[in-house]
Amino acid sequence: NYIPPVKRYFLEMRFKPMPQYHAGALVREGDAKTSPVGKMFIQPKVTLESGEVTLLDNVIGPNFAVIGWGCNPLWGMSEAQIQQWQALGTRFIQVVPDTQIHTDQDNHDGVTRIGDTQNRLRAWFAQHNAALVVMRPDRFVAAIAIPQTLGSTLNKLASVMTLTRATADIPVEKVA
Asked: Does the first or last residue of the chain, that is N or C, have fewer Cβ atoms within 10 Å of its Cβ?
């Protein structure tokens, strides 16, 4: 009989449901059921430019992070926003396929470039149809964006967090 073991499983709280936030330091857009916003981010292994393989947590440290898949995470931000988020200790990270970590590419000041060792980050970004993720220090997703909407998304997040708002109301006129 399977009923007693299943009942005991729930009564003893052996299950651990995935935590999720619905309010707070989040910018939720789109379908809340499928959105990664408010959910814990994955913890993949990544390759540093030095060749060392480590966990993404070790790269970020106890900070906010703006992580871009194959793009410069500063691209959609105004200079005022960059300064505002740097003042919070935010890490700006560009993820590239692991095979590209040692190729010559444009490195951007203030941006750490890492390789996707396990291809988990590529899969995560593809699943959520985003190029950028804003992550809180507790490793929950605060927002997702594309470079063209990152500035306004960060303005909304700053407002929710009651930070002094940096100006990013100037439309982004860049072409990728």
From this structure: N
